[in-house]
Amino acid sequence: MKVYFQEVKYHEKKSGKCSVCGKTCTISKKFYQTLNPFNKNADGTIKTHGDIYKELMIQIKEWKKIPPIHGKCEDVSNGNLKPDTSYETEMDRATKYIDKYK
Ligand SMILES: [Zn+2]
After folding, report:
1. How many A from CA of 95 to the centre of ligand 1?
2. Distance of CA 24 from the midpoint of ligand 1 (Å)
């Protein structure tokens, strides 16, 4: 038998100028915790809906202080990808491929 614990979750959105590319950016994020016997407070008591709500609100507040970054730009700033300008899209690659074999 599977036991499903109740999730306390909030979908939050923030928008502003991307701190990497400077373009308008809106991102959303899900904040959640589950109500379960192992999810405890620092004092050892099991977290209630209210406890989780308070924690999530703090996380959301902190998250909203940070300017939004596009998913792709975040990869760039982490050094995983080349900057936007030289970034080849699937479409570019496909077009080049077609041109080559015309
Ligand atoms: Zn960006």
Report:
1. 24
2. 8
Phi/psi-derived region of residue 22, left when phi > 0, alpha when psi is between -120 and 50, beta in every other case: left
Taking the whole predicted model, whether its pTM rises above 0.85 is answered as no
How confident is the prediction along the chain (102 residues), in pLDDT tens digits per residue? 677 789 999 999 999 999 899 999 999 999 999 999 999 999 999 999 999 999 999 999 999 999 999 988 888 777 765 554 445 566 676 677 666 666
**Cβ-contact 32, 9 below 8 angstroms:** yes
CA distance 93 to 38: 49
C-beta neighbour count of 54 within 10 angstroms: 12
- Rg for the chain, CA atoms, rounded: 21
Closest to 32 measured CA to CA, from 72, 14, 5:
5
Q: What is the CA(97)–ligand 1 centre distance, in A?
A: 28
Token couple for 11: 């979908």
